[in-house]
């Protein structure tokens, strides 16, 4: 005999425990009946003890995996049918006080083997056969026997129908559970796709801004490169001839200028690399002052000779609940939009952009203002809608402001646009401040 590992171990343990409990109840019944009755025969006690031992054996076999969990229902039904029939025969046949136990067999089996109705059907047939046999041995009239068999048959049918109904309900529950799991999987997959699309959309918008800065970067890099090259030629000429103390001082000045030019190139490249890299900044904090300076440096390559941007930063600004990279991206987007707006103004004018930051009601408020033509009233309500843009084809994606508002909203802040009374546009960004640690506050 080989072990059957098809049934889960947990289910086998539960079934084994059930059989042992039933065996204990039957054994306890022997003791109780011995106490309350003096005329219990040894045959009766042996039958009930044998019934109890049968359940113990079934429990051991199921626990060891020697018989399948579903098949054990036949064994328990057969053991119970033989035990009940023997007890009834020993205590008066159809007139035995244990005779009603026969009708209880299919009902009990239906309850203990809900996963299959086959054992219930088989035991119902066996129960009816036992009734006929016991009635026949007792010489019961045929009419009464048929009435008894039909009544027992109806109750057995109820047990079968109940078992079948339970199976259908279990099947419906399993189907519903499977549908729920599939729906959750589809939802999870949809969320993964949405997050990936959001990341891609963010990267596209950032790379678009990098592209807008590219021409300005070339100009900003070429200027320091030109005087670095000129200064190197001057240094070479000075080294070829004898130099006076005054010449040496001038040489140091040239070296200092050259170093500044190289540092400027390094700063531009560093800012662009940091801005264009991918990264996850969930849970990060942003430093408004640093972000404003970085956004201004990046925007300067686009401003060039068009105008200037000035910063007005209140002292002691706290950190905000928006990652540094996203904060820089939002400010840079607003600065570039301001440059584009002033560039289209009629008559043409020098771009003046102001970026202010202060603490208002425990939050950090940043404002970006320009002296451009302002925002048309019909455009203002649609300004933050995805893919809405007033820029010519190829110059704007319509995602910049929509993403800015999304980043800000996710951090618990607000972003809105308005027109300045004196002309031009104003974007107001309000972000929740990060509370200072208790030790720092003290």
Topology of this structure?
Blueprint: H1 9-36, H2 42-64, H3 72-90, H4 101-112, H5 118-137, H6 142-240, H7 245-276, H8 288-303, E1 307-313, H9 324-343, E2 351-360, E3 363-370, H10 400-410, E4 414-419, E5 425-432, H11 438-441
Parallel strand pairs: 1-2
Antiparallel strand pairs: 2-3, 3-5, 4-5
Describe the model:
By secondary structure, the protein is an alpha+beta fold. The chain folds into two domains: about 10-180, no CATH class; about 285-440, Heat Shock Protein 90 (2-Layer Sandwich), CATH 3.30.565. It is built from eleven helices and five strands. Strands 1-2-3-5-4 form a five-stranded mixed sheet. β4 and β5 (about 425-430) form a beta hairpin. The radius of gyration is 45 Å and the shape is rod-shaped.
Q: What is the helix content?
A: 55-70%
List low-confidence stretches. Answer: 1-7
Can you write the helix and strand succession as a string?
A: HHHHHHHHEHEEHEEH
Count of all domains = 2
Largest sheet: 5 strands, mixed
N→C terminal distance: 77 Å
Q: Report mean pLDDT, rounded to a whole number.
A: 79
Strand arrangement in the largest pleated sheet:
1-2-3-5-4
User: What's the number of helices?
Assistant: 11
Query: Taking Cα atoms only, what radius of gyration do you get, to the nearest Å?
Result: 45 Å
Taken as a percent bin, the fraction of beta residues is 5-15%
**Looking at the structure, what is the overall shape?**
rod-shaped
**Structural class designation:** alpha+beta
Kindly state the number of beta strands. 5
What's a quick, concise take on this entry?
This protein is α+β, with helices and mostly antiparallel strands and 442 residues long. The chain is 64% helix and 9% strand.
């Amino acid at each position: 005999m080989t072990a059957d590992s098809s049934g889960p171990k947990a289910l086998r343990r539960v079934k084994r425990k059930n059989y042992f409990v039933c065996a204990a109840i039957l054994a306890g019944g022997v003791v109780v009946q011995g106490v309350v009755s003096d005329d219990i025969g040894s045959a009766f006690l042996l039958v009930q003890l044998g019934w109890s031992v049968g359940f113990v054996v079934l429990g051991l076999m199921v626990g060891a995996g020697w018989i399948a969990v579903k098949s054990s229902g036949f064994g328990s039904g057969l053991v119970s049918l033989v035990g009940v029939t023997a007890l009834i025969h020993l205590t008066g046949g159809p007139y035995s006080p244990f005779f009603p136990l026969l009708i209880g067999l299919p009902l009990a089996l239906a309850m203990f083997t809900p996963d299959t109705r086959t054992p219930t059907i088989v035991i119902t047939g066996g129960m009816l056969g036992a009734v006929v046999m016991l009635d026949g041995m007792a010489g019961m009239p045929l009419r009464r026997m048929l009435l008894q068999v039909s009544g027992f048959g109806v109750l057995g049918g109820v047990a079968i129908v109940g078992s079948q109904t339970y199976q259908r309900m279990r099947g419906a529950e399993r189907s519903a559970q499977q549908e729920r799991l599939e729906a959750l999987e589809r939802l999870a997959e949809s969320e993964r796709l949405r997050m990936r699309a959001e990341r891609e959309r963010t990267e596209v918008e950032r790379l678009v801004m990098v592209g807008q800065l590219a021409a300005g970067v070339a100009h900003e890099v070429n200027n320091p490169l030109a005087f670095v090259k000129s200064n190197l030629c001057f240094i070479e000429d000075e080294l070829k001839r004898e130099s006076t103390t005054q010449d040496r001082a001038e040489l140091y000045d040239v070296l200092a200028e050259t170093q500044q030019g190289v540092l400027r190139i390094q700063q531009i490249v560093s800012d662009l690399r940091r801005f264009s890299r991918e990264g996850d900044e969930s849970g990060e904090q942003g430093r408004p002052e640093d972000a404003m300076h970085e956004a201004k440096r990046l925007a300067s390559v686009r401003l060039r000779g068009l105008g200037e941007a000035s910063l007005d930063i209140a002292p002691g600004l706290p950190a905000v609940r928006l990652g540094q990279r996203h904060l820089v991206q939002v400010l840079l987007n607003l600065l570039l939009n301001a440059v584009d707006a002033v560039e289209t103004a009629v008559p043409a004018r020098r771009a003046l952009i102001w970026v202010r930051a202060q603490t208002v009601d425990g939050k950090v408020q940043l404002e970006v203002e320009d002296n451009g033509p302002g925002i048309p009233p019909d455009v203002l309500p649609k300004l933050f809608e995805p893919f809405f843009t007033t820029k010519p084809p190829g110059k704007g994606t319509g995602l910049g402001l929509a993403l800015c508002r999304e980043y800000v909203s996710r951090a618990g802040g607000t972003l809105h646009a308005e027109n300045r009374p004196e002309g031009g546009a104003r974007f107001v960004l309000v972000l929740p401040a990060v509370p200072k640690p208790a030790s720092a506050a003290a």
